[in-house]
Amino acid sequence: MSLPILPTTVVGSYSMPGWLERLKTEYFVRRISRQELDEIHDAAVKAAIKDQEVVGLDIISDGELRRDNMIDYFAERLPGVQTDHTSKKFYYDFYDSVVRGKLPMASLRLADDFRFLASFTDRATKFCVTGPHSLVKRIKDEYYKNEEAFATDLARVMNMELKELARAGAKFIQIDEPYYSGFPEDLQWGVRVLNTLVEGVDAKIALHVCYGNRYGKPSWAGNYRYLFPTILEANVQQLTLEFARRGGEDLELFKEFPNKFELGVGVIDVKTHEVETAEIIAERLRKALKFVPAERIFVLPDCGCLHLPQEVAFAKLRTMVQGTKIIRKELGG
Amino acid sequence: MQARQDAAINIMILHVNHIPPKQTALAASVVSTLVTAACEGQAPARILENLNVHLEWLQYKTNFREAITLRRATRGEEVLPWFEVGVDLRQVRPDSLKEEFVNVLTDAADPAASLRKRVYLEPFTTVRSGLIWRFNNMFWQHLPLWESASGHGFEKALPGGTSDANHPEAIADAVADFWTLLKDLDSHNQLPAEIFALEIGVGTGARACAWLDRFRTLDRERSTQYYPRLRFLLADYSMPTLNRAMEAVREHRELASFLAVDALDPFKSLSFLRFKVLSIHLTNVYDNLPTDEIVVRDGKLYFVEARAYVPAPIAARICEAFGVQPAELGRSVSRLLEVGPQHLHHASLEQGVTFWRSVWDAVRLEERYVAIQSILDAPLPAGVKPGLLENFVGEGVMNQRFHLSSGALESFLNTVPLLHPRGYLQVQDIFVTKLDDYGRMFRGPGKMDGSIVNWVNGALLAEVGAQAGYDVHFAPFHYREGSRTSTLYTTHRE
Asked: How many whole angstroms separate alpha carbon B363 and alpha carbon B450?
């Protein structure tokens, strides 16, 4: 499937409707059944796909609307990870998950979600997976006693899953590692584990690193300098970073540390409901183009649109597409 | 409680709410009088059958209620048959109690009675948008005029005559905690070049001054050079207050900034500091922000609406004293609120202020309960998701009356986006931390000098905070014995 120059996409999640939040919480307080929730999720994902198509995105995700948060969706599927209390007051809360023995190899059944996505769109797709570094920061370890060892085993299990996704047709997989920014001192082993995760996976791999988006606010402050030069050892094809909220100063790093990565440029600030203009988007892209050639740039929001109201997310993405078109035109496309 | 009238049994339900131990004898006497009045057949049986009496002690010496007040309930255009009478033990006069009680019950059957006894200043409206809040705004905008007339500063009206915000030990501890945060950020090479701290609702400026003095001292003692990097923002919506605070912190002028902000929406003025402020402090701000109330009666939900009025005899006295035609009182009050006491037509400044104080002293609220099908229909503060309030009230609550703390919630939600990822918000105020505690004592509104005071629904605030990504905790203010204030502080929710 050919993509235009400056392909547009989401980081992963689409707006979580208020009614879906309530229904998810209803499930966790045992007021609706798993089957009912699954049917609700199917309907919500179809709507998210449709919205992305309507705004004109080139690469579509499932909006991650089946996921309570970036951790639990994986924690409850990972073999060997135990969740003692599976009731929540609010769906977005984290489980207290724990690993008490060596992780066995087994499927996480993620490919089913990808197949669902692929069956409802003709456009290119992207499937997102939380990386091992972020998972070990939220899953309590009572066995490995060493974060890298735990993360490496997680990576081995999830590597099988990524290969399964590729076999199911996923050509573009994104690994989300926001916790890098909270624990920059882990980066050396974080990248080693990342490379274990993606080894032999027959798909384009993107790595998304941001400063957190929990509850629609940043979890950490700082800049991306800590990523370099270590990140250059990552066996991924694309880095997806946030530049809209934080400004484009860190783009200089791509000049300072020449590399062959594609760059997913965050041009939409997902932590404000204010909708950018197309010209602002265009200006952010012009700035990125000074450091990375157009053929290596992807256009997307800073992070997931989970916390934005649907009408805001829709408007922001539509503006992002319009702003991108301005630049394509300037590039002669 | 049942009251016998002739041969028939009439039901008058009497709720005895939060009576202080010292007032139990008075309460018993009042109960006896009420029951006797009911038994003597002076009140219509039809009224008694639909009557709920709530007996309580309003701890605010001045408030918006009369000793005995009638509250009706409506659903759409329909006036519901049941009604409620509130009896304030603190205000009742035993010698006239029975007569007043019977009069109120008689008036309940005569909708025109209240028009004869009260001069209304507005139609029924939500409490938060009512006229009393315009009085509250005027108090802060014209504070020096009020203080000059009252002969004392506004803090004298606080319990203990001073603000807990200025307690030196509390400030020293707050500064120490802040310095520790800075040191930790510094040790991880994450300390911003400019260190933003914000105080909203600066009062006299005494706390800001003491805080800055202490911070400078600590910084010098420890040679950390944080003080010169500090950007201390003092924010308030009252310019007189800001001017006073400016004088108080003159020694720190180089790093202090003074900003007029809307307490309901600090973000509107300070959006350039989004995710940058490391410490935000408020004292006695939330208790002075507009709020609405929800009432649960027999498991059904009602929203409280109110209209301000002045009792007719007092209105007559005010009109006579200030040369206002009785029919013009409402218009004069509107003009007062519109132009301020110094510009009242035909009035000197002194007369204007006296008129203001007289009306404020006299103003009362007539309440009615508006039935709502579901708590989801309640006019929720902006940003509060309906399901949250539904879960907050929960099932099985039969009788309760609580504040939505609409203004406080709005202010909170419009403040936390300013916080740096490691920053925190501290709010020193009077909080109700459990829904059940609304049944333990009257929580307002009361009058505090020329302003309004309401306890803040901390329990609801905690729920709202959790969904905004902050765990909200409350710690009693232990620096002054007997203090009723507590400190809300946030920690980031994982």
From this structure: 11
